[in-house]
Specification:
Prot_inh_pot1; transmembrane; DUF8094; alpha+beta; 8-stranded mixed β-sheet; transferase activity; transmembrane helix
Length: 592
């Protein structure tokens, strides 16, 4: 009976394994659908619209072939079409009949005289980019509002041999269970067969009641092999058993390896349902709000590029190179530092910008330009985190850091997630406790008058470490000056709003993070007509002033880059100080 069940198991195993293999081979339909793309005209760029990419479900595989280096990048369609206004390109769209239509779009905007030549490589607009020689193949999964740009170097014609492919979704969910189930039945059949053989052998043992055995004759071991016939050539029972075991083990291992090697994930049924997302706080996004300026990965890449280029500029004291990645107050601070390092070799450079490690990202939700994002970047060391505002002037410009400071206060702000973004606040907005355009002037008045300032009640003094440091520094310097030069001169302090444009992005509680600059001035003037102000002990001031002494005195200007949280007009909160950086900006002789 064991042999019968073994045969049944072998037959069922053969049927199941055969059916499973057939599903993965002869019975399986095409796994992908491929669409060749015809590009009209020799243009330097090809724009594949998001509708084309989404014309089929599933992952999109782009294949571009040509001579030389092939470039591809993807970004929001609006960003790509704006960037391509300075070049001719072929726009691939989806026609009414579902066919891909190629339309040549001519250049619509001439670049400025000082504009850098248009090149697709390393633009800050791209969410990601790819480069490969002669043949580029990449898999994408883009929504309809994103498109793909294909080019070579931006001058030579773009590759014309393009294909797109998508998975058909053809799956064989029962191939895996059939193959594995058949393998298990095969194993069961082998076990039953082995048990049957064992039972048959044991049943041949001596019996109590049997027929008398014939008398056997002794075998002469000296007889030659040919005379003994099959007796001497027949192996022992033990060797036969070993041979069968070896034969039984090998096919099981071989079959298992063959069966399981072909069972990919689509060869199994999906027995687990889709996970149910947990409830998260909802954020109401206005219908007219634009897309966030950058993604988190994009911001990381931009900050890394800014850090790298500014590090090179710092090493060479190259203000022109720094201007490629810095602007406003951040550029002014570096220009002054380069002047000092050129005149004073031992002068230290400004702190480098961290290359990565974004802790907080607040991008502006805006489809036009200029566009800005604010980021808090941490190094993970004992140094404080860095807060910065970064702005892109137009589609063809690189992002540049405008304000940068050390985070100096621990505070909890209600910020929109990076995939939503925040709207920019108008400099003259009346909906904040102070309009951004008035914030620098009000804070400068507080630095000069402290609690006597009319704006002092608007600011939270307990969290403002910068204000405390400035007051202590002024007191210390004034005391030191009066000990040596009170009879021959005077030292006065003043603060005023900087000449840079404030940056303000809204928070979820109708407040805003605002970045401004404040200029502090220290003025030393003689009180005696015969006295002069000498700079022998101040090499930094001397290097910036260009002279070693003056009969009228000197005015030294320090530039402060400051970040605040400004609550809404209706809020009971006060303005909170977030971070600062301060550096010397200029020294001039007092005009008589």
């Amino acid at each position: 009976m064991r042999f019968v069940w073994a045969v049944v198991a072998f037959v069922l195993a053969a049927v199941m394994i055969g059916a499973g293999i057939a599903q993965r081979t002869v019975l399986q339909g095409p796994t992908t659908v491929t669409q060749a793309i015809e590009v009209t005209g020799d243009v330097p760029y090809v724009l594949i619209d998001g509708a084309v990419l989404r014309s089929h479900d599933g992952t999109q595989t782009l294949r571009a072939q040509g001579d030389g280096t092939i470039f591809a990048a993807y970004a929001r369609t609006n960003d790509l079409t704006t960037w391509l206004q300075r070049a001719d390109y072929a726009h691939l769209t989806l026609g009414e009949d579902g066919a891909i239509v190629s339309e040549t779009v001519p250049q619509t905007e001439a670049p400025a005289d000082d504009a850098i030549a248009l090149t697709p490589v390393d633009s800050d607009l791209w969410l990601d980019q790819f480069q490969q020689d002669d043949l580029l193949i990449t898999q994408l999964q883009l929504p309809e509002d994103m498109s793909v740009l294909v080019a070579t170097d931006g001058t030579e014609p773009a590759p014309s041999d393009l294909t797109l492919s998508w998975p058909t979704g053809a799956a064989t969910p029962w191939a895996g269970p059939l193959i594995v189930g058949g393998s298990l039945l095969l194993l069961v059949g082998l076990i039953l067969y082995a048990l049957g053989v064992r039972h048959a052998r044991r049943s041949r043992g001596p019996r109590r009641k049997g027929l008398p055995l014939p008398v056997t004759e002794p075998i002469d071991l000296a007889v030659d092999t040919e005379e003994k016939g099959v007796i001497s050539a027949t192996p022992t029972r033990r060797s036969l058993t070993r041979g069968k075991r070896s034969f039984a083990v090998l096919p099981i291992v071989a079959v298992s390896a063959l069966m399981f090697s072909g069972c990919s994930p689509d060869a199994w049924p999906e027995l687990v349902g889709s996970p149910t997302p947990s409830a998260t706080p909802s954020i109401v996004v206005p219908d007219d709000q634009g897309s966030p300026a950058v993604t988190e990965a994009q911001a990381e890449r931009i900050i890394s590029r800014i850090s790298t280029q500014l590090s090179v500029a710092d090493e060479a004291n190259d203000a022109a190179a720094a201007a490629g990645r810095a602007d406003g107050a951040a550029l002014q601070a570096r220009e002054t530092n380069y002047r000092l390092r050129t005149a004073i070799p031992e002068q230290q450079s400004l702190d480098p910008i961290p290359t990565s490690g974004i802790r907080v990202l607040l991008p502006e939700a805006f489809d036009g330009w200029p566009r800005t994002f604010i980021a808090v970047v941490g190094t993970g060391a004992d140094s404080p985190d860095t807060i910065m505002s970064v702005t892109q002037a137009d589609a063809w410009s690189d992002y540049k850091v405008e304000y940068i400071a050390d985070l100096a206060a621990d505070t909890s702000l209600s910020l929109a997630p990076p995939y939503v973004g925040a709207v920019a606040i108008d400099p003259d907005s009346p909906f904040l406790l102070l309009p951004p355009s008035e914030l620098a002037g009000a804070y400068a008045d507080v630095l000069d008058k402290d609690a006597d300032s009319e704006f002092a009640p608007l600011f939270d003094a307990e969290t403002d470490v910068f204000r405390t440091q400035i007051a202590a520094n002024r007191t210390s310097r004034l005391e030191s000056f009066n000990q040596t030069a009170a009879e021959t001169g005077t030292l006065t302090f003043a603060a005023s709003a900087g000449d840079t444009t404030p940056v303000a992005l809204a928070t979820l509680d109708s407040g805003a993070i605002v970045a401004v600059s404040v200029n502090e001035t220290d003025t030393v003037t003689p009180t005696n007509a015969d006295a002069v102000i000498k700079l022998d002990d101040s090499p930094t001031v001397k290097a910036l002033a260009g002279v070693s002494q003056s009969a009228t005195g000197f005015t030294t200007t320090f530039a402060d880059q400051l970040f605040f949280f400004v609550p809404a007009q209706s809020s009971t909160q006060r303005i909170q100080f977030l971070g600062y950086s301060s550096s010397i900006l200029d020294v001039k002789a007092v005009t008589p």
